[in-house]
Amino acid sequence: MADYILAIDQGTTSSRAIVFDKSGSIVSTGQLEHEQIFPRAGWVEHDPVEIWRNIREVIGQALSRADITRHDIAAVGITNQRETAVVWDRNTGEPVYNAIVWQDTRTQPIVDRLAADGGVERFKQVVGLPLATYFSGTKIVWILENVDGARERAEAGDLMFGTTDSWVLWNLTGGVDGGVHATDVTNASRTMFMDLETLSWRDDILEAFGVPRSMMPEIRSSSEVYGTVESSSLLREVPVAGILGDQQAATFGQAAFDAGESKNTYGTGNFLIFNTDTEIIHSKNGLLTTLGYKLGDQPAHYALEGSIAVTGSLIQWLRDNLGLIGSAPEVEDLAKTVEDNGGAYFVPAFSGLFAPYWRPDARGALVGLTRYVNKGHIARAALEATAFQTREVLEAVNADSGVDLTELKVDGGMIANNTLMQFQADILGVPVVRPVVAETTALGAAYAAGLAVGFWSSLDELRANWQEDSRWEPQMPAEERDRQIRLWKKAVTKTFDWVDEDVS
User: Fold this and answer.
1) Contact call for residues 72 and 132 (beta carbons, < 8 A)
2) What are 9-62's pLDDT values in tens digits?
3) Phi, psi at 26, each rounded to 5°
4) 468 pairs with which residues across the strands?
5) CA distances in angstroms from 89 to 135, 154, 215, listed in the order given
6) How many Å apart are CA 320 and CA 317, to the nearest integer?
7) Alpha carbon distance 370, 367 (integer Å)
8) Backbone φ, ψ for residue 238 (5° rounding)
């Protein structure tokens, strides 16, 4: 039997291929960043052709660095940036427009138009999501309404839609020569078109948006064989057997399989997922109801999610837009040059505010500035913004679930920042726990694929793989924690009502 699973992690800033062994340990990695395209304020795009080209290359990197071939790979799993929308021609394989990224806010007029009849929660009881620019449904509408000939081609059945998992799967399994057009329940649950109970596309909602049903991929489980890799690939004939949206994949990789278990991913944005088992819980506190995972024919597992738009990307902004640091890890050293934030609070509402506020009219604000504040304070305020936003989401999870979280499992790139992790524990008042394998997003996709082909036998086997690496205990006095949270919430209110008719 083959000794490894390969996971493709198609993320917001890069694409990676990671080879895992039976213990869930990383054997090798290939990674390439792709261009971030910002045509206008609030617009964020990626080139799907560049992404697919990079994926082919990182697969080669990972295989060569492990000194293995396709014969050593039991299956391929895919995880992806979830709401980013790709529309392409089924006959040529060419995208009709760049991928519109989950952070993009250009579709707010479409949101407003749809919300005119029933408000932003018009479809929430069915799909678990409010009307927002975040989700892929309005992005499809924008492409159909703004790309020459797209509406006509879609109505004729020539166009296909997919989040980037579908784009990768279709190309990996043959593209125009019989490529599989499918997605899994977790990604489907982020479109605004899938019924949470039936796990199928809702024709009435597709009609309300004006999106032809023929564009939509088939909805499948998160762990099954969708097809095999096409013949010209280095992975030819290897089964593609797992798909999970990135945040659900990270939850799966953290072995948070049961009700009440959760994780928080610190990436481009932050995403806290709380497993509600087979129960659909509709949030009253600004959270999303989403699919957690579905293994083959077994019942679907659901989750509550707190989505934060800007965390790691704020550190990228300090690096790329301001030149305050030369590389992302330098932000910790800069923050450690000061003892506290100097009274400065940074609310990075670059794409509006996501959970728990859902305020598309908000924009970023740096408040509390005095002559005393220096670049160290700004770096610290940027890090602390991640922890404060997580605190607000956790408050909402506790309120919705009726059960206070006793510790927080974390993953993602920012968890290497010990200063941030300690502040996170301080501002939450509960321990923060980092696993040995921090690449839990790719690991979750590998687990889903491996279960489908018998590489791993059970969830218990996966639980046994999880190991604690580091733990941060709260050290901040309760009075200071309360003061900091009060000032943060005051800072958040300063971002409201910025966008109006003549401000984008």
Assistant:
1) no
2) 999 989 999 999 999 999 999 999 999 999 998 899 999 999 999 999 999 999
3) -80, 130
4) 435
5) 22, 9, 10
6) 5
7) 9
8) -75, 135
